[in-house]
Every structure is written in structure tokens, then in C-alpha cells.
Amino acid sequence: MATLAEIRAKLREQENKTGGNTQSSGGDNAIYPHWNMAEGSEAVLRFLPDADPNATFFWKERLMIKLPFAGIKGQTDSRPVTVNVPCMEMYGETCPVLSEVRGWFKDPALEDQGRKYWKKRSYIFQGFVAENPINEDSTPENPIRRFIIGPQIFQIIKGALMDPEMEELPTDYVRGVDFRVKKTSKGGYADYSTSQWSRRERALTEEEKAAIDTHGLYNLNDFLPKKPTDVEVKVIQEMFEASVDGEAYDPERWGQYFRAPGMSAPTGDPNASKAPAAATPAPTPAPEPVAETVAEPAPAATTASATEDKPSSERANDILAMIRSRQS
């Protein structure tokens, strides 16, 4: 487990690299849905270390891209669906979607479309729920829960870690501190900006230590999407192009690779895809927080689009035409 000084050094290194910009769920209910708290509620969490002895942080960063489709091909009553796919930048590689989308921000008419496909950043933590304001129907036998934390809360967590007045790791079993997630609203959306670390240290209780001894800690890498193969990267590119063109999700072409919500098993012939033969099906990503995961800051906006005054159908056709023109 890294020391607090090592964590601070790594965070500074990441800030320097970025210019200061800010899997499977296993079929259980270990993910704590803090986004389901009522407005004005507060949950008290106690973060725990990653089981991975080589991990610098006590969290894992996850980058996903949402691909919206008009529906599911072959279903007459199908509603629009969104398929989540991993962003290759999460693995330190070039993402085919972002490579295309970055250029759109140079054109005012394509900015909104670009933001739709921009990467979404979230973080996976683990720990105890010391105070739970949610009336959950059931809780797992293992009290060590997983947390999907969005950028707003994460910046609060990170800010305190960089504060020299924090002398011990907040995950320390004896001198650690709890984190208070507070939910309010702003502009009609959930707001967590008043969340904060507790001011007092709190040693883990005997029950909490016993739970760690009994169940062990999670290796958080196990809950990241697996790295897509070369075949799956090509499938992501194909799905992205179909999504931009307003097509429906095609389970015959993509069901072996990335499944739409509600699809319990791969279907169809993977050779029907333009991509090469079948790869191992990608796991279903963990549930996304509702209204807390936000888009990674996209390239700076340009001036207003000249197409804004047109009807939405005409704007969509214009955008598709411009995108296709740029691709050709």
C-alpha cells in the first residue's frame, strides 16, 4: 500500500501530465447506490485500501463512452438504448472514438454532437457504509461495499489528500477518517459539492476489522472492464459510426462483443460483423451513477453554430452530412 506522500507525488505527476484538468458487478448488490439518497440526506463512508499490493491509490479510474442507438434492430417496439464501451485511453492507448470526436470541436456545428460521445470518467472505491440513509431492500452479507464515484465527489476527495494538514491516509485502520457524502440539488440536478471528510479520526470497529478478516479486500482491477482486443476495438469503431448515423443497435453484428441493456446473452453470428471472427464477450460494465458521473471536460467550445436556428431534424441531417464529409 502506498504512503500518503507517494499518493501525493503520483497525483501531482498526473496533474502535470494533464495540465491540471480535472465489468461485471458480479451479480451481487455490493455497489452502494449513494445516488439513490433523498435530497438533504448524508451517507457516511469509510474507504479501504485496494487489495492489489502494487496499487498506488485506493481507487481505480474508469473511462467509458456512451453510444446511443435509435433502438434494437428487429424489435418493432424497441426504444432508444445506450451501450457503454470502454475508452481505450483507460489503458494508455489511442481511442478510435475520441480520435474522431476531437476534430469535431473545431467546428461549431459539431460541438454538441462531440460532447455526446466524449469520455465519461468515474472512480471505483471500496469500504464500509457507516451511516446509511437509504432504505435498501437487502444488503450483502459482506459489508465491504463498492462505490462508483463521479468527478464532483472525487475532486473533494483528491483535494483533501493534497492538503498538508492531512497527516495520515484516510484508509488507515486506526487513524483514518470517514467521508460524508451529502446530496443536495442545483439547477434541477443532484449536487454533492458539500460532501466532505470528517474532521475527527475514527479507528475501525471490531466488527469492521472482523469483516476484513473474514471477507478480505477487493482487488479493484477486477471491476474494471477488460481491455478490448483488436477485434473489439474495431467493433467499437463500427458501433460508433452506426450510432452517429442514427442506426439501431444490431445484436447480430455486435451482440457477441458489447451487449445492449436487457440482453442476457450473446446472440447471432459474429461473422456477420465487418470485424474479424469472434472474440471473448466483453463483461457488462458496472452500473453508472444516476446524475453523478459527468463527462470529462471536452475541448474548449467555439462560437455558436449557424445551424442552431434550424429545426432539429434539419440540424441532425446537417450534422451527419458534415461528419460524413470529414470522414471522406
- How many distinct domains? 1
Number of strands: 9
Low-confidence spans: 19-27, 267-286, 302-313
- Tell me which CATH architecture applies here: Alpha-Beta Complex
Shape: globular
Rg estimate, integer Å: 22 Å
Mean pLDDT across every amino acid position: 82
Q: What is the terminal separation in angstroms?
A: 50 Å
Tell me the series of helices and strands, N- to C-terminal: HEEEHHEEHEEEEHHHH
Number of helices: 8
- Which CATH C-level class is it? Alpha Beta
- Biggest sheet overview: 7 strands, antiparallel
Commentary on this structure:
The chain has 328 residues and is of the alpha+beta class. The protein has a single domain, classed as Replication Fork Single-Stranded DNA Binding Protein, CATH 3.90.198.10. Helices cover 25% and strands 16% of the residues. The protein has 8 helices and 9 strands. It has helices at residues 4-18, 96-101, 111-116, 151-161, 206-215, 230-244, 251-254, 312-327, and strands at residues 42-47, 60-69, 81-86, 120-131, 145-149, 179-182, 184-186, 189-191, 196-197. The strands form 2 sheets. Strands 1, 2, 3, 4, 5, 6 and 9 form a 7-stranded antiparallel sheet that branches. It has a two-stranded antiparallel sheet with strand order 7-8. It starts with a helix and ends with a helix. 29% of the residues are buried. Residues 19-27, 267-286 and 302-313 have low confidence and may be disordered.
Topology:
Elements: H1 4-18, E1 42-47, E2 60-69, E3 81-86, H2 96-101, H3 111-116, E4 120-131, E5 145-149, H4 151-161, E6 179-182, E7 184-186, E8 189-191, E9 196-197, H5 206-215, H6 230-244, H7 251-254, H8 312-327
